Automatic annotation (TrEMBL):
Family to which this protein belongs: Belongs to the MsrB Met sulfoxide reductase family.
Active site: C119
Any single Pfam family the record assigns to this protein: SelR
Protein name as annotated: Peptide methionine sulfoxide reductase MsrB
Cofactor binding summary note: Binds 1 zinc ion per subunit. The zinc ion is important for the structural integrity of the protein.
Name of encoding gene: msrB
Residues of the MsrB domain: 8-130
Length: 133
């Protein structure tokens, strides 16, 4: 995937304050406050920064964590994973593979078939609803 490289100031102009804080500075939103944590609308979740396809609603589930949770990304190439030792913890950070936006973290306590829980900030996502037949 070709990387999108853009100066921080350009991102600051394009994103809301919340999106900038989360996506570009690695922040997080409070649990149960994000736009998509309880959404059941079928569709494709794209990166709020660059539009890269990240997660499908078919893999979304209610983890009880207060953040949108998925058991797998649309493809292994759509995200990147990085060790994160911030806040006195060891976690695996999830970023958009195209623009390096911070999305959230992945944990090994999810449902079958992967056993993974991608815990993602709503502000880093944009839902593209799917037509329901």
């Amino acid at each position: 995937m070709e990387k999108l490289d853009k100066p921080l100031e350009a991102w600051r102009e394009e994103l809301s304050d919340t999106q900038f804080h989360i996506c570009r500075l690695g922040g997080t939103e409070r649990a149960f406050t994000g736009e998509y944590y309880a959404t059941k609308t079928p569709g494709l979740y794209r990166c709020a920064c660059c539009g890269n396809a990240l997660f499908d609603s078919d893999t979304k589930y209610d983890s009880g964590s207060g953040w949108p949770s998925y058991f797998q990304p649309v493809s292994a190439e759509s995200i990147s994973e990085h060790e994160d030792f911030s806040h006195g913890m060891h976690r695996i950070e999830v970023k958009c593979a195209k623009c390096d936006a911070h999305l959230g973290h992945v944990f090994p306590d999810g449902p079958a078939p992967t056993g993974l829980r991608y815990c993602i900030n709503s502000a880093s996502l944009r839902l593209e609803p799917r037509e329901v037949e």
